[in-house]
Every structure is written in structure tokens, then in C-alpha cells.
Amino acid sequence: MANEVSRYGSGATVEKLDAHRRYADAFTRALRDRPRKDDRFTLQYVDAFAGEGFVRLRNSSEIVPGSALQALDTIDRPFDRLLFIDRDLKNCERLEQIVAERHDGHRTAVRNADANEEIPAFCSWLGSRHGRMVRAFVFVDPFAMEVDWTTIEAIAATKRADLLMLFPLMSLRRNLKRDGWPTLEHQTALNRFFGDDSWRILYSTGGDSVIREGGDREIVEAYAGRMKGIFAEVVDPQRTLGSAEDGSLFTLVFGASNPGAADLAVRIARGVFDAASGLQRRMRLD
């Protein structure tokens, strides 16, 4: 399987996967015997852009397990159910082969679908009475701005899911031009990503000029501010992953939807971000 890997990891990959692994392990450990040892929550993992299972690191011969495989191998308690979503049929076929080879088909579903359709459907079920004894960890790892705000809203509305999202900072930079309003095409994409035109607060107008002020920190805060309106708690590490030079500039954002468990989720997320902070020593988002 490793010889068939076609997906290449960017400069952000190692740190992203480290944070993902740490949170998946901590999530399952924290909920291992909740709410009671003899009546535990069913723990579900959802990967919105699951890929093909393995990732080849750019400028390297090293091949590492991707987020989907890391979720299959949580240390303390296995996830009871896992849902892998990807729009690429070949990625799904490779994932299905890996799942079959590992004999994990009884707890794993692979869907060749659009995450913006599949996740809201899952969240509708999770937020209903049928999902009362289920808790979920949703990982959203888009290449660019493929995630609709309605998908993020659906996750928050469940009150039973934690979200870890790779925030596509470089893609936002490209859409949010510095001098003048973005093109109409980019404005449409930004409205879909933010859920409205709140991204316009990043611009100042005076006379005939329109200028985007501030930098990466302001872009992240604009989105995190939107998240704070729908999640119980939101955390971001206030630092970057990857680099602008190779087009792989990202950061992470975390949202806890369950008000009763948000404090614990936030402590875990902050611990994860702190532990990962030394891997690449990236700049702070100032």
C-alpha cells in the first residue's frame, strides 16, 4: 500500500498529524469510562477529508500514516465507530483496502462523498435522541477553502462533538487581496467559508481606496470569532504551521460543542497545542 501513495505532505503535515494523534488519544482516554464504567458513551471519529491512508512527506522518502490510520490506532481506548469521507474515489478504494487488511470493517465506514453533505447528515443524527449516548471527534483537514460554514454550524449544533480543524491560512491570503476588494468569485467563496460577509471587517475604506489591514492574526481571529458564536468554547494556538514559501501555511482551530464538557475539552486542546509547539518552531501569529 505504501508504494501506491500519491498524496504529498506539506511543511505543516508533521505538526498537524502530531496534534491530531494527541487529541484523538486524549479524547478516547478522557471518555474511556464516561458517563459510567458499565454504561459508556459510544465514541465516534469522523474524518472529513480522509485521503488515502498514508502521506509521503515532501522532499523526503518517508511515508507516514495519515489521520485516518492514526484514528484507527488510538492508544488507550479504540473508537467504537469511524467514518472516513473523501470525494476522491481512488482515495476511498485505498482506504477500504487498508480497513479490510486490518479487519476493521466492523467499525469503519468509508464514504465517497462531499463532506459538506455527509457531515451535516451525520450531525443531524448525532444531535437527535439516537445520538444521546454518542460523543464524536470530528477532524476537518481541507486542502483549501472547501469547508462550508453550514458544515461547521452543523457540528456545533450537535452539542456532542469536538472539532479540530486545519485552518487554510494560505488560501485565505490568496482570496483576501491586500489592495481593493476581492473579486466577485473570491467574495462568493469567502461568504461560503465564513457564512456571511463578516470577512469585510478586515478592510478599511477611505475615499476611493480599499485596503486590507492587519495580517494573518486578524484573518484567524475573524473566523475564530464566528466560531465563538456557535461553539461552547474555541481555542487556537496563535501560531502557524508550514510556511508561506512553499504554499503550506496553516494553523489549527478547535471548537468544543458540549457546554458541560467544554472545560475538559479545552484543557486537552491547549495541552495538545503546547506539546506540539516545539516541532517546527513556527512564527507566532502576530
Short description:
With 286 residues, the protein is an alpha/beta fold.
CATH superfamily: Vaccinia Virus protein VP39
User: Regarding quaternary structure, how should these chains be classified?
Assistant: single chain
Arrangement of strands in the largest sheet: 8-7-4-9-10-14-13
Could you spell the SSE succession in H and E letters? Answer: EHEEEEEHEHEHEHEHHEEHEEH
When the domains are counted, the total is 1
Distance between the termini: 41 Å
CATH fold type = Rossmann fold
Beta-strand content bin: 15-25%
Could you tell me the mean pLDDT? 90
Helix content: 25-40%
How many beta-strand runs? 14
Structural class estimated from helices and strands: alpha/beta
Stretches where pLDDT falls below 50 for ≥5 residues? 280-286
CATH architectural type? 3-Layer(aba) Sandwich
- Class, according to the CATH hierarchy? Alpha Beta
Question: How large is the radius of gyration?
Answer: 19 Å
Largest sheet geometry = 7 strands, mixed
Shape: globular
The number of helical elements comes to 9
Question: Would you mind describing this structure in some detail?
Answer:
This protein has helices spanning 13-30, 67-72, 89-101, 115-126, 149-157, 169-175, 184-194, 216-228, 262-276, and strands at 8-9, 35-36, 39-40, 42-47, 54-57, 63-65, 81-86, 108-112, 134-140, 161-167, 203-206, 209-212, 233-235, 251-256. By secondary structure, it is an alpha/beta fold. A seven-stranded mixed sheet has the order 8-7-4-9-10-14-13, sandwiched between helices. It has a three-stranded mixed sheet with strand order 1-5-6. The longest helix is centred in the first third of the chain and has 18 residues, at 13-30. The protein is globular. Residues 280-286 have low confidence and may be disordered.
